[in-house]
Write a structure and sequence with these properties.
With 226 residues, the chain is an alpha+beta fold. The protein has three helices and twelve strands. A five-stranded mixed beta barrel has the order 2-3-4-6-5. It has a five-stranded mixed β-barrel with strand order 8-9-10-12-11. β11 (207-217) and β12 form a beta hairpin. The longest helix has 28 residues, at 16-43.
Length: 226
């Protein structure tokens, strides 16, 4: 082999031997990158089935609850739809009663929410009052504090450390906080978290244990923290 002929000079064509070597290196690196990408994709957990019907406004009518957070009880629905405002804001101060409104649906499994279209809420004739709350007694539950709006469907994923800063801003802006827990079978569920204290913002996206009273209101479970 004539080694002099394989010497590479930048302004001359690549020698055949150098071309073959470079081609093998590029193909090998490409295969390695493709394999790593496949492993990373295969190791990803699928996103939860959560939906935000952005700018798909619907009409709603029902009974407005204001405690602990604004929610709309719609006849025939298993639990009330929480109400929030646009962006990282809660629904604000609202008066209870029979109302009609427009908004965008946010839902994840059995968790439901409506982003209220500003100026669309109107009080109408008095409807049937909701069933009284049921006190389920004192409990101590361990889980993760999340902001309900993002977790229910606006962001995906809407929990964990990657979402911590957003959750802090949303809850600070009035979005109802929730406690994400798991039942005996390992299935995740969310409880509204009432009596929320500012210092709990420091524990978002971390495992926390909270004591309080568990209350069922129109099908929705709420933990009133001590």
């Amino acid at each position: 082999m004539n080694r002099e002929s394989e010497f590479f000079v930048g302004y001359l064509p690549l020698p055949a031997g150098v071309k073959r070597h470079v081609r093998r290196v590029i193909l090998s690196l490409g295969a390695i990158v493709a394999a790593i990408a496949g492993l990373l994709i295969g190791g990803q957990h699928p996103f939860p089935d959560a939906t935000f019907e952005f700018q798909q406004y619907r009409e709603f009518r029902g009974t407005l609850l204001t405690s602990p957070y604004p929610a709309l009880v719609i006849p025939g629905e298993p639990q009330p739809w929480l109400l929030v405002g646009p962006g990282k804001h809660g629904a604000g101060a609202l008066a209870s009663g029979e109302v009609q409104l427009r908004g965008e649906r946010i839902f994840r499994g059995g968790d439901r929410m409506i982003e209220l279209l500003p100026g669309s809420l109107q009080h109408v004739d008095t409807g049937t009052p909701p069933a009284p709350d049921k006190d389920l007694g004192p409990v101590e539950l361990t889980g993760e504090i999340v902001d309900s709006k993002c977790y229910f469907g606006v962001m995906n994923p809407g929990n964990g450390k990657v979402h911590r800063d957003c959750a802090v801003r949303c809850i600070s802006g009035g979005v109802p906080p929730a406690l994400r827990v798991r039942d005996a079978n390992g299935h995740a569920m969310t409880l509204l978290l009432a009596n929320f204290k500012h210092e709990l913002l420091n524990h978002i996206a971390e495992p926390v244990s909270i004591r309080g009273r568990l209350v069922r209101s129109s099908g929705r479970l709420t933990l009133f923290a001590e």
